[in-house]
Amino acid sequence: MNDIKKRSDESILVCVYYGLNGERLIRRGYKLATLLNCPLYILTVDSKPVDKFDAEKSGYIERWTELSKELGVEKFIIKDNEKRPIQKVIAEVAKELNVSQIIVGQSAQSRWEEITKGSFLNVLLKEIPFVDFHIVAVNPPTEEEEIDMYEKGVRAYIVPAGEQYKIVFTCPKGRYIEGIFFKEIGTDFDNGIFRFSHNNKMIELKVEEDFVSTPEKIPEEYKHYLV
């Protein structure tokens, strides 16, 4: 994709971990990169050095390397023997490569919750605030088909709108709650979930047609703040 890079300011980073989902994410990233006419990078992070990888891990690395060459990926990056939090590593690589979009996937509900908890998202937002996130939730590896739940985790804001609370995507001049909005796939309206951190915990609000449908989950101090 070298000549593609010259024609586009966009760039995509796919973060993969061991499992069947890795190849699916790489192919997803390739399709998006082709659509946007931009370069694609693949990143995997491991706390062990490469020469200590077991046969299974080495097999995945070999396959991803072959696939990257097959698809013309700009660069396949292996960050091994890495002791820092994975989100710090992702942020560092994204900055170095001037990445504009990041794709992360998880294969089960527990992993989805892990990847979208406050610490992960908050660090990435602070480190690389102008990157769009695509967080893909899929069924466990035993399932044949990948199921997308949400797309484009993007920075958003909750603001008061009369007696309700509305989601907006341009930083408002008044008071607001800042967080990340995950839009449901296949909807024309802003339906999905809005997540923000409060007292080191992640608060999740359901959004239906631009408005918060679970206002009771907003902490009282935030409600008073927004008035």
Automatic annotation (TrEMBL):
InterPro entries: Histidine_kinase_KdpD (IPR052023), Rossmann-like_a/b/a_fold (IPR014729), UspA (IPR006016)
Keywords of this entry: Kinase, Transferase
UniProt entry tagged with the keyword Cell membrane: no
A Pfam cross-reference name: Usp
MF term (GO), any: phosphorelay sensor kinase activity
Domain UspA: 12-129
Superkingdom to which the source organism belongs: Bacteria
GO cellular component, one term: plasma membrane
PANTHER family, A to Z: SENSOR PROTEIN KDPD (PTHR45569)
Protein name in UniProt: Histidine kinase
Species lineage: Bacteria, Bacillati, Bacillota, Bacilli, Bacillales
